[in-house]
Amino acid sequence: MKKLLLFVPFLSLFVACSADTDTEELANYKTSYSPAREMLVSEFPSDGALNTSCVKKLSAAASLKTTNGPGTGTLTFTAQVTNSPSGNYKARVEIQQLSDCDDFNSTTGNAVAFTNDVIYSNIGTNAPQVTGVSPSATFACYKWRLVIEGVSNSGSVTCNSKTAWYDAPLF
């Protein structure tokens, strides 16, 4: 009987400790972030770009090449395309400054674009990339995405595909 009476207060201790509530910061995050809103921004850009997609699935990776030793590297952003569409394509990387390194949505200013104006064909096996971006040309805190544009023989843009935004690489 004594053990049973001690068990009730002991059980109430666990019940009281497990009743967590959202902090104000978490509640603000839940109301400000919307995957649907992020998808709309990616799908329907406000910069007047075409909304015709070039590829079915596009992702990207960043790497740092330090051929001349530490501190002298260049960033390379490489597209990863799952299908192999025909045609000619150009690639560019867009880098967007963040005002708060811990807040992925705290963008400030306009995105900066880097390209090397190389025309790629057979992008399923010949991965488009943007090379030679100096880390000093980027911001302290930023996010980036890769954009693939289809180009006609006359040089006009026929389609574009954009990756999701990625966090800045930690090099």
TrEMBL record:
Q: Which UniProt keywords apply?
A: Signal
Database matches in PROSITE patterns:
PROKAR_LIPOPROTEIN
Q: Where is the signal peptide?
A: 1-21
How is this protein named in the record?
A: Lipoprotein
Q: Which organism is it from?
A: Flavobacterium akiainvivens
